[in-house]
Amino acid sequence: MIFNIEMIMAFYRELPARVSAIRKTLGRPLTFSEKILYSHLYHKIGTGSYKRGSDYVDFAPDRVAMQDATAQMALLQFMMAGKEKTTVPASVHCDHLIMAKSGAAEDLKSAVYSNKEVYDFLSSVCNKYNIGFWKPGSGIIHQIILENYAFPGGMMIGTDSHTPNAGGLGMVAIGVGGADAVDVMTGMAWELKLPKLIGINLKGRLNGWASAKDIILKVAGMLTVNGGTGCIVEYFGEGAESLSCTGKATICNMGAEVGATCSIFGYDGSMEKYLIATGRKDVAEIAGKNREHLNSDKEIYAEPSKYYDQYIEIDLAELEPYINGPFTPDLATPISQMKAMAEKNRWPVDVEVGLIGSCTNSSYEDISRSASVAKNALDIKLSAKSEFKITPGSEQIRFIAERDGYFDLFKKIGGEVFANACGPCIGQWARNGSEKNLVNTVIHSFNRNFAKRTDGNPNTYAFVASPEIVTAIAISGKLTFNPITDTLINSDGKEVKLAEPVGFDLPLQGFGTTGNGYQEPEKNGSRNDILIAADSDRLQQLAPFGEWSGSDFTGLPLLIKVKGKCTTDHISMAGIWLKYRGHLENISNNYMIGAVNYFNDKTNLILNQLTNQYDTVPSVGKAYKTTGVGSVVVGEENFGEGSSREHAAMEPRYLDVRVVIVKSFARIHETNLKKQGVLPLTFKDKGDYNKIREDDKIDIVGLVHFAPERQISIVLNHSDGEKETILAKHSYNDTQIAWFKAGSALNLIRKANQ
Ligand code: MIC
Ligand code: SF4
Predict the structure, then answer these.
(1) Ligand 2 atom closest to Cα of residue 426
(2) 643 is catalytic
(3) By the 8 A CB rule, do 60 and 162 touch?
(4) 599-637 pLDDT, tens digit each
(5) Is 296 among the residues known to form the active site?
(6) Pairing relation of β-strands 415-417 and 488-489?
(7) In angstroms, what CA-CA distances link 360 with 13, 110, 214?
(8) Most C-beta atoms within 10 A of its C-beta, which of 64, 239, 517, 587?
């Protein structure tokens, strides 16, 4: 079955006319992403052209995807919107809540048991509102989207930051918070600042140990974690065409790590092959007929630097494998320089665990190439010195990897297969001994490696590499091992060298059929009641947030001034906290517990201005909430990078944090704060960060005149009686100011549907 085939066909029928209308309006050649963006305008083309990087534009995406950890909040909000069913096709995927511990079968069984209440809730909401439900065990959201739903030229949003994975199939696929998903599911316009465009021309072809992953690891090093903010990254060139569709998806997936809105490749033969292999020949055929509209115009490829806001060239023939990390995905080290880097930085080089898989890297190509390394190791009498774990991205992949004997090879070198889920990528790894917080190194093929992310231990140095490099390093046991040049000693005491990996981009015997774990929404589901137990500690009905009072904020105590990196993992940790993702009150107990307090360099220990004592962030937050005055949070650069989880914005709202002032924001987090009614501001002069004192009371002045582009004054009332006024900027437009005044974006939608 091809999901939503009528919608896809209708899209392609209209595409040629739409593209020529866009070309006429813009009066110049178009890039592929412009064709997609302009053909998904909410108020159809003809309404003019927009300025990249500054104009907010209303879009009408084709579909919405949600994963279990974010879907709970998204759907709790959707339920408040007063709609009978979703306006566009939507799906929910149970992947994040499965704990990796004892291997696939057992872990799935215990997840189904321990998360029953949440899975039942999600399944019944899906039935009621006509949403496709993918049961636990079916696989990770992005892999399932690629295998079933993505189509070239389409536009989707998903409540997960790695939604851009579908760019591997030529889709503009953007990660958002749940409130954005509610916009689209209720048929409202979905707003986005028109992204700037970064063009990356891939020249030459990959060879040897280098893989698609190494392209994005290198790009992360070049652009850094915020270099892609507000941009779509478009890949093209001879090298792009030589990559498999799933390799392209890996690159687009990890574009989230440079802050990109999304990444995309033009339609080509590799996508056609993938569509056919995954049972979507009809889509491949019609996309083939529209090929010219599913790529940039030829003029763009001829003179890319003229049309892109930023233009980069990478020669794949020269590319060597990279290892990125620790603690940040943009610290990129070519494998040949790892020995020197590790020595210089004193990184622990004994690798305890190598992990492959995740939504980023568990394609057939990844698994088969890694398995070839394992097979070669067995042939030359080596086995893994480190522990070795595999998390397949979907049931499809698990099934064929098992069928084709790859898991057998992994097991023979000492590997263990986890459930088809996020598991160790998101702190859902019950790793023996991690509570002892010992210094150690792991290497994985996932996308993120922020502190504590894999196993909750702040002293785990996590490095990111391609699956084949992870496999080789797990065999050697050393971070500094370079399979291109180094040898190993085998069980016979002989010096041996691993051969270059070989693999297949698609399974020779096809994908085969297996129960995929999909549940079609019930026909008469709209009559179903959704029950949430009043005493549940996992789910809680939401109550609307209060409207803005109409006056300035005065005398707000500083809650926390965060020092350094503050990702969504610092703001609202995952791991054990994932279980409270449907319960705002309970999850608010993790607010900012991972962030470093500027004034004492400690995590989760801040001054309570009411008592003059030090306490945890959630306790102080609650204490301020009871006063009704609210509070302020201050931070540094790229604040809220990483996940799309809107809990990182709903928790401060729940705790009555009124304003977050930082040097700069990550896109999704800034929007999430706006949507939930918290005021995100940026220092006009970044140096003013230094003026904020621990016991300040802060006024936000001039909110009655709150208007786009208009700066806001902040008065710092220091405890010694001194006052300082600083200026802050904001990125609100008129619509968003209305969200602020209404108390949240959802409050407005509710009113409209009443
Ligand atoms: C992640 O990779 O950080 C997550 C977990 O997939 C998140 C979503 C979440 O926090 O639920 C993301 O990337 O958006
Ligand atoms: Fe899951 Fe990790 Fe992918 Fe996020 S990045 S969707 S946690 S596998």
Answers:
(1) 7
(2) yes
(3) no
(4) 999 999 999 999 999 999 999 999 999 999 999 999 999
(5) no
(6) unpaired
(7) 32, 25, 12
(8) 64
